[in-house]
Design goal:
- By secondary structure, this protein is mainly beta.
- Helix content is 5%, strand content 46%.
- The chain has one helix at residues 3-19, and strands at residues 33-34, 39-42, 49-52, 60-61, 76-81, 88-93, 99-101, 108-116, 121-126, 129-134, 140-145, 151-158, 164-171, 174-181, 187-193, 197-202, 208-213, 216-221, 227-229, 236-242, 249-254, 263-268, 273-279, 283-288, 294-299, 306-311, 316-322, 334-335, 341-346, 353-358.
- Strand 17 and strand 18 (216-221) form a beta hairpin.
- The longest helix is centred in the first third of the chain and has 17 residues, at 3-19.
- The chain is globular and about 50 Å long.
- The two termini are 15 Å apart.
């Protein structure tokens, strides 16, 4: 979402809220418009301005940080919310602050959804069905159906070329990593284990998928001929994802000694090199901007429940805001495509809601589209 877009949001959002406009364009609620719930306020700790984008009387979530919630040109974001009475997907317009209901599902899964295809489509689960929705036309197509004896696990992503989706299926304790060809719905099994698999992330510019297996991180090729555990640093492994160019895995490392700081580390699969990027103020969630020069993280410290920027070159942090989330992992902060805004989730004001902040003073603008 661009700075211009959110500026327009702040000017026009209250007008949309005052109008109370809410109508159904189609049966089942698809196309229904909800008014803006935008609220601007200074953060109590830093006095930096914050925008609350959704209503804290209802639960709202962004897609996982490794998936996509934000349009590359910044004109909208998609999110999951129960404000219609049950969880559905919504498109929040950057100019008006209004939200349009995208899905009318029987059992929408708020853990598993992502934008793809030049921001024209949303992939999501409705029960066992993997669906692609045309966001503008509100038409849907079933791509794949999970077998009757199984259900969706945690994780759904679409590769940057929009040809394949990676997802997790589970049956009791057994989990499978599937690769789905979006054009015809054909499925290939890349990995299977009698323990939790989750968080699949296709590798940019490569034919492989990063995923979590129990407490470790694995890499599986599209052809299923290679599937191996990455030799990461000792200690517990937190969130992990690819660098923008696909050359390295960025991950949080929690040292075995609790007196040591949580750290962002970088592992290069092609050379098996693992190195420290920076120690953090006990990050439990993080993401990088488009060129990997700056990170935004959520601290799990009870004494310092903050959202922070970390500049890679100098390994220094800047406190942006308090999050005060009941579970710091839910904060899951992420940059807009142009690196000028950050977004995060917290239940500080009630139920989980989505918040935005400008970081244009601290972070250089990056390309907003591929």
């Amino acid at each position: 979402m661009t700075s211009r877009g959110l500026a327009a949001l702040s000017r026009r959002g209250f007008l949309a809220l005052a109008s109370g406009a809410c109508f159904a364009a189609e049966t089942g609620g698809r196309g229904r418009i909800f008014p803006s719930f935008l609220k601007r306020f200074p953060d109590p700790a830093t006095e930096f301005p914050i925008l609350r984008l959704t209503d804290p009387n209802h639960t709202s979530f962004l897609a996982p940080a490794y998936a996509r919630s934000f349009a590359r040109h910044g004109n909208f974001l998609v999110y999951a919310s129960d404000m219609s009475g049950k969880f559905e997907a919504f498109r929040l317009d950057a100019k008006t602050g209004q939200s349009r209901q995208i899905t009318a599902s029987e059992n929408f899964d708020p853990r598993n959804f992502t934008l793809f295809g030049e921001d024209r489509y949303l992939a999501y689960f409705d029960g066992p069905r993997l669906i692609a929705a045309n966001i503008a036309a509100l038409r849907t197509r079933e791509i794949y159906r999970i077998p009757d004896d199984s259900e969706p696990g945690f994780g759904l992503t679409v590769a940057e070329d929009a040809q394949f989706a990676a997802l997790i299926e589970k049956r009791g304790s057994a989990h499978r990593l599937r690769l789905i060809h979006l054009a015809d719905g054909s499925a290939a099994k890349l990995a299977e284990a009698d323990e939790e698999l989750r968080d699949p992330v296709p590798r940019p510019r490569r034919a492989s998928v990063l995923y979590r297996r129990a407490g470790s991180v694995w890499l599986a090729n599209y052809d299923a001929r290679q599937n191996y555990r990455l030799k990461l640093a000792d200690g517990e492994i937190g969130p992990a994802t690819w660098s923008a160019d696909g050359r390295a895995v960025l991950y949080l490392n929690y040292p075995a000694d609790p007196r040591n700081l949580h750290a962002i580390r970088e592992f290069t699969p092609d050379t098996n090199e693992d190195r420290l990027v920076a120690e953090t103020s006990q990050f439990v969630a993080f993401s990088a901007n488009a060129d990997g020069s700056v990170f935004v993280g959520a601290s799990g410290s009870k004494a310092s429940p903050y959202v922070l920027l970390l500049v890679r070159a100098v390994r220094r942090e800047l406190t942006l805001a308090e999050h005060h989330a009941s579970d710091p992992a839910m904060v899951s902060p992420i940059f807009s495509a142009d690196s000028q805004r950050i977004f995060f989730v917290t239940d500080r004001d009630g139920k989980p809601a989505i918040y935005a902040m400008s970081v244009a003073k601290f972070v250089e603008e990056t390309a907003s589209a591929n």
